[in-house]
Amino acid sequence: YAKRGKASRAIAILNKMDQYSSISRNEKDKIRPDAHTLNSIIYSLSVSKEIHKARRSLKILQRLEKSHVSGDWRATPSNQSYNMVINACSTTHGTDDKRAEAMQVALDAFSRLQSSKYAKPDRYTYISLLKTCGRQLSIDSSDRTRIVENVFSYCCEDGIVDDSVLQNFILAAPMDLKYKMSSSACLAFDDKKMSYQNLTAAILPEYWTRNVILSRKC
């Protein structure tokens, strides 16, 4: 059910597993969902049309983290676990309150990933997070400028700015932030006339892209 995107049915089955485990006296008879099971449910939420999918996917992620901390080695969160929660946030639709909630959940998931001992942000993390910013934050919001700039700065620090990350930054960033970023890139490339529209990852500062395989311009 999870792979088919039937989130409600997948969660109902998870609840049945929990009910069975709660009445089982024998520890060996208890059914504990592993990382694959919980990740599948997060995925089903991320591709569903459920209006509460951002919040619900975060709860599943929190359960996965808690299971691992409690000693269940089969329940180790991965990059994918966090990325799918952020993706659920990027595809959330609804009222302004729902969009604000989705943005907050995405930032929460990102913070958890940054603090994780078993996973770390990758290119998909930043692509999904920038998409969430572009879709859930008002274009004229000061929060949008601040959050997009912070997200892109983290990506630069991690050295994984590729063309897809760059394009999603350009789509999400307000105009003044686009010019600010392109100015920094142009200083590194020694071309003060280059527009953000002509930028590619291959001509960005090497520190920003040091962990990406690129065909660089000389």
UniProtKB/TrEMBL annotation:
Source species, domain of life: Eukaryota
Record key words, sorted: Repeat
PANTHER family the record matches: PENTATRICOPEPTIDE REPEAT-CONTAINING PROTEIN, TETRATRICOPEPTIDE REPEAT (TPR)-LIKE SUPERFAMILY PROTEIN-RELATED
Protein's name in the database: Uncharacterized protein
Species name: Eucampia antarctica
